[in-house]
Input
Amino acid sequence: MDFILQVLNALHAAKTQWYHFTAIVIAGMGFFTDAYDLFSISLITKLLGRIYYFDAVSEKPGTLPPRIAAVVNGVAFCRTLAGQLFFSWLGDKLGQERVYGLTLMLMVICSIASGLSFGKSPDGVMATLCFFKFWLSFHMLQ
Output
């Protein structure tokens, strides 16, 4: 407890400098992009339902089946936890610069793969999309 009070006193006594604002902006942008990703998934599920599960005789233009919607929404939350834990650990082991390079390569590969999701059925396309979406966003908020 004494250590925490010493740290808080040191922070209180420190003068605010430019790198403090830089750290706040970087942390805020990471939080914003992850929150946007988690927020926008509900809009994306509606679009995916209309594209892959369209039924001309139905009154609704097309909705994802509940099991598919649960997987699409669940992938976003699971990858957030897993990515934070894994890449924080990996950053401690390999160093942040190497991990940034690794996450950049992962983002590029999975972005292309997400755009080219494949499958013979709508369920197959959704499975590959969820797989690549998981790995695309796995690194967020390290």
